[in-house]
Amino acid sequence: MNWRIAAVPATLIPIFIIALQFDISPEDILAIGLLPFAAAVVVMMLKLILQGIKFTYITRQYLGKFDSFWKLTGVRVGSEFIKFTTPMFVGAEFVVIYYLHRKGVKPSKSTWIAIMDIVTEVLAAGILSIMAGVLALASGAYVVATVVLGTSITVTALWVVLFFLSSKRTFQIPQGLAALASKLGKEKGAKYVEQTNSWMAEVCMMSRKNLRTAESKRVFTVALLFSIASWICYGITFMIISAGTEYVIGAFDSIMAVMGANAIGNLPITVGGSGLAEFGIVAYIHNLNPFDFDASAGGLAAWDAVIGWRIATYYIPIVVTWLLLVKLALSRISKTETSSSGA
Q: How many C-beta atoms surround the C-beta of residue 3 within 10 A?
């Protein structure tokens, strides 16, 4: 976990490069104003809270009145710290699986809940990002459209296809990898392979048991709507920030630009999409090559808004999520609490 904390300062490097490249001073960022900045932070936190509520909803649908509403919501919000400090924004699911398992939930069931949560999250983001990519393609921004569509379609298809296939077949570790693990790890390696295959078989069994039921379809639909709402909140944060600058953008264009940038930031190149998200949002707005550092030279607006947006939607939330992660997800759980909420 310590390396993740150490990685956070490294994400500031692209910010400094952008500021130097385009002569953006601290005064330019402060000129955004306290009200737009605070409003963007509040909306971003609303996005995270909606994710937490969705996770709580899914959990209670499968485990009954399990744990307190606020603790489950806080754990899910805290788990976002892992996504913020990981390439491709993955890892939050492992935190919730870990937490549920410590509370006495079987690994297969906790994994099923986490998968339902992450698949609806990915699908909602994929829908909006693909829309952004199609609009970029229609406007002639072929490089931006290729990156946005290539990333969003690949990630969305991978998660969704595997999710629905799990109800029809049992996934196991590929034989080649299993043999390599057994060879390198010997008895322990073989044991871990066996345990992992058993765990995957149980998850697939749960998928077959639950996925086709009317209840699970309802849970999936409600969770997907929660996810779409949370991503829309994220999308309008740039509109709110830009209101305090010379660059003004509408709600729909803001959502498309942010979701296009989110897709570009999913490329497994930098921690938390640092640099990619910033260049991606300007590239989307101005139909430019997101990997050309000189692309926005020539007086194009929005860089001060982009940096302010990044601070409001990444650096402040990363502090909040870290505190919740340590306080809730990684804190000690008493035996009494475990026995009273086990499932």
A: 7
